[in-house]
Amino acid sequence: MASYKNPVSVLVVVYTKNLDILLLERADREGFWQSVTGSCEPKEALSDTAARELKEETGIDGFQYGLVNWKMSNEFEIFKHWRGRYAPGVTHNLEHVFGLCVPELIPINISPREHTQFGWYQIDEAIEKVFSWTNVDALKFLMKHRKKLIGIEA
Q: Which fold has domain 8-149?
């Protein structure tokens, strides 16, 4: 029996108080930059998925820094070139957004199977660099709610 990806996923925005944003370049699509993402395993809690994906893709322990569920979600159409990973007829994914504020630019250990490189970018540059509208929306949410999410005056 074929194993298909679950069309429920997480997006985890990793950032500093100065709004330096961690972005990763996908190994399967050159030039496609994004925050940490990943699909939920069957019966896996969303926060566990976010923590697992952070660890797998960056080496970061999300619970060490206070991983936060932003209680935002977006449904989007799965790009045609990635639909073969999902069961026949699945065309949309439901993505849940998390944030992780780290105290400084911390060391990152990317998974070469998933990403070719990483970088820390100021939020305006990150918004221009990411390929996904859901990632753009999450970054704009961070800018708008900076005071609440970071605990400083905007």
A: Nucleoside Triphosphate Pyrophosphohydrolase (3.90.79)
